[in-house]
Specification:
single chain, about 70 residues, alpha+beta, 1 helix, TTHA1013/TTHA0281-like, RNase H-like HicB family nuclease
């Protein structure tokens, strides 16, 4: 899986980025490397929240899980 960061110059010299594939993930950084690190941390947090919400939706139901690696 490829994840694309859309990067813009923000105010006061900061870079602002958003993940194209996960538009809810938005962050900032002073450098491109810092921004990319912050976006990846934001993605990890976003996915954890999604996992928790999905787990709540399936609570009390019978289901199976399969691990997919991209």
């Amino acid at each position: 899986m490829t994840i694309t960061a859309i990067i813009e110059q923000g105010e006061n010299g900061w870079l602002v980025g958003q993940l194209q594939e996960f538009p809810a993930v938005i962050d900032q950084g002073k450098t491109v490397e810092e921004l990319k690190k912050n976006l990846m941390q934001g993605l990890e947090f976003y996915l954890e929240v999604q996992r928790e919400q999905t787990a709540q939706e399936y609570e009390g139901r019978t289901f199976t899980q399969e691990l997919l690696v991209a």
